[in-house]
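Final paragraph of the annual report: two paired records, presented back to back.
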Amino acid sequence: MSGPGFDDEEGPDEVPRFRQRGGMRRDLAYATRLFRRGRYGKAIAILEPLVVQYRDSRDFHYVLGASCLAMGDSGGAAVHLRRARQLDFRHVPTALALAALHVRRLETDKAVELYLEILSMRPGEGRAKKALEFLRTNSDPERLAELASTGRLRALYPRPDPFAAYGPWLAVAAALAVAAFAIPATFEFGRKLAEAARPARPGVSAIELDPATRADPVTSGGSFRFVLTEREALDAFDRAKRLFAEYRDDAGLVELNRLSLSNASEALKAKAGELRTWARKPSFPTLRDRFSYADVARDGALYEGVGVAWTGMAANVAEGPSGTEFDFLVGYDEKRRLEGIVKVELSFEASVPVDRALEVLGLVRNADGIFKLEGLALHELKEP
């Protein structure tokens, strides 16, 4: 990269390299070469008419989304980069481009979450570390808006391949030269840098209980699932606040659900509702607190809106106009033990294989005493 706080560095998979065999069409390969040369407008003109044809191609949506980002089309970039991420959540270039889009939109908390997720997948990823360091010193919205107006945020965008016009031999020689002098960063270094760059959540720390609420945090009238003492109610709120400050949103939501189902006062529940607005949807790498199927089955309402990731197999897959749904056989990925069956509903198009081991990420949703999962992502587990 070039720009404030960046030097030129590019990973080997920054832009996918396509081959003509295997049915890959020339238009996508040609558009990719244009993208690598920085000719974004022409790449967009070629790809946009082919959205239906390539709706399930990660590389198509990545190249088109990154080109839209470079051309200043935030809406188009969001649509295609999010679709590319749905198709392959482990694709680092897509995550980097989407994080850059969040910075462009001044959504720094979402950007930092993505950069941290990238480092959890690839601890030595220099672009994510440099972006975090950049945000650590340029997190003020006015400063970011100024940088955006001058084009300096483009340093975070996927950039053209500097070797695209000079042939493969020069690229190979340069890669060997970089490899000879590069000193790989350790995971611990990457983790510490990421933690240092993670901005605080000032909105969370600003949510305080007033003296009157702390003095009278529970009520005695009514029927409740949980009956808490004054100390237990206050501890649950303080614990949830601490968890949200630590970006452990799902564990924090459990505490907030406990309060909402309890005899906590209306004032305390209102403050808990303010904390709930900070909850972010999880991804596989960022899901820090893992709740089991047995946990949720004991009391689904306690886990409303909480992210879970379970392994198993899909059955009874049905596709409809609003998405795909299936029965998920939790724990049956090795065909030895069935923990339970839960309905999974996907609001996006997905090819769900049956009789294959899967991992599903979703949010717990409850209706009529039965819980299901609002599917966020899934991937097939590789054979051992």
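The closing record of the year follows.
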Amino acid sequence: MKILFQGDSITDAGRDRENCRDMGPGYPKFATELIREEYPDVDFDFINLGISGDQTKDLMVRWREDCINLQPDIVSILIGVNDTWHNAEAKTWVTAPVFEANYRYLLDWIKRCTKAKILILEPFLLPVPDKQIFHPDIDEKILITRKLAREYAAAFVPLDGLFAAACVETDMYHWSDDGVHPNENGSRFIGSLYAEAIYPIIEDVLSGK
């Protein structure tokens, strides 16, 4: 069973770009460990093609080669924070209609050209003081991601909401040093949420649904 991780630096996490089956030290590492433990008899092919700095427009450029041609059984996507961050200083945000069109392009291609089931993880922002300027834009993109998940996804992980709850109980810096990139604690947290969300999808693939 082929499972593809796609996204930006949160998914990339410093992986070995010369080996797409290297999960790196981020959440894909912890997710795949849990999945293998849960399904020790399943032959998984885990592929990580997250690229640091990517926005939705960058995924569009490489989508055929880095997703469609691979014909995954399951593809997960975590994208969106760079569509905000890279444009934050001048507040020249990627507009909501453009962000939605870009993301919808990716999802439509999966639906048209593969049999892959889709797991969407929403972009998130922890409440660190120097990133609060992001909220007017990224909050809108989070809502768009939720809308698209209802239309396209077999499962959805509401990371922004779940991290918000986690930061009530535990200091925000326990999860991330900069509010965007998870540290080991944050990566383990995402990995466990990912695994929990993907188990029912794996069951569907195994049963031929």
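The domain at 2-207 is CATH 3.40.50.1110 (Rossmann fold). This concludes the annual technical report; the extension proposal builds directly on these records.
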